Amino acid sequence: DFAVLSMFCSVGWLVAGQVSRPALGSRGVVDGVEKTYRGVGGDLQCGRRVTGILVESGRAVGVRLEDGSEHRASAVLSAADGRTTLFDLLGGRHISDAMRGYYGRIPVFNPLVLIHFGAACDLGGEPSAIVFPVRKPFSVPGRRVDDLNIHITRGDGAHAPPGHCVVRLGIESDYDAWAALAASPERYGQEKQRIAREVLERMEERYPGFARAVRVTDVATPLTTERYTGNWRGAYEGWRPTTKTFGLRMKKTLPGLSRFYMAGQWVEPGGGVPAVVFSARCALRTQARVSASAVS
């Protein structure tokens, strides 16, 4: 049920020169935003979890952190997980019926098991993205795997040393099955190791000698994604762009709550870096107009 039009849009943006692949990956985008923000006097504090949004007289006035401290602000912009923002940080208040309905009926991206290999080879001659069938199918929690979808990033000094590469594989899996496994840390760890072995065996079949070249292996589950990013059920790009949701416009503000804005993939169905950055830009411009109106 994936909307094919979304693929044409992505290709169209590229052909028109409106998007490109950042030389330093998404991390380069993040670092660029941080540098600009600090350059204009912004104060960025990381590693401090927000546990509540402060509201007074129908207006967002700041945030409360995990250590109990409160930080006041003239406006609050949340780019965090949408469900956490609405139902936890705001306690379910100020939510429109439409917004509440989104979390009950719109499908989200199926979570992934992400496997990364850092290898002392560059798989020269291969394209950067390949899908190939495996001769011996295997399983991950909730799914049988008949083919592998790999992305190769060759050494450019930013992602890997020259002559090396990073190989990434994303395999759709089941969140609830991983949550059950996590009840036993030993079983959870063993399952991650098993999947890494299964994938490496198939990579070795296609690229003899690859296994010996591997220097680093990392396996992330849907629970890893949720723990690091906060994304509900490990949905790495939020809402799935189906034929029914593609083009859905979500409001970035909430009824009865002023000086509060949302940005990011949970208000931009389909997600992705371009949509998220555009969403943040729109939120900041809206806040700038509101502030200008208040001054005038």
What features would you highlight for this structure?
single chain; 296 residues; alpha+beta; five-stranded antiparallel sheet; three-stranded antiparallel sheet; 9 helices; 24% strand; globular
Notes on the protein architecture:
The protein is an alpha+beta fold. It is 36% helix and 24% strand. Strands 6-7-8-5-9 form a 5-stranded antiparallel β-sheet. It has a 3-stranded antiparallel β-sheet with strand order 1-2-3, with helices on one face. It has a two-stranded parallel ribbon with strand order 4-10. The mean pLDDT is 91.
Question: What's the structural blueprint in terms of helices and strands?
Answer:
Elements: H1 4-15, H2 25-39, E1 50-56, E2 59-65, E3 70-72, E4 76-78, H3 82-89, H4 97-105, E5 112-119, E6 129-140, E7 143-154, E8 165-172, H5 175-181, H6 185-206, H7 210-213, E9 214-220, H8 222-229, E10 260-262, H9 273-295
Parallel strand pairs: 4-10
Antiparallel strand pairs: 1-2, 2-3, 5-8, 5-9, 6-7, 7-8
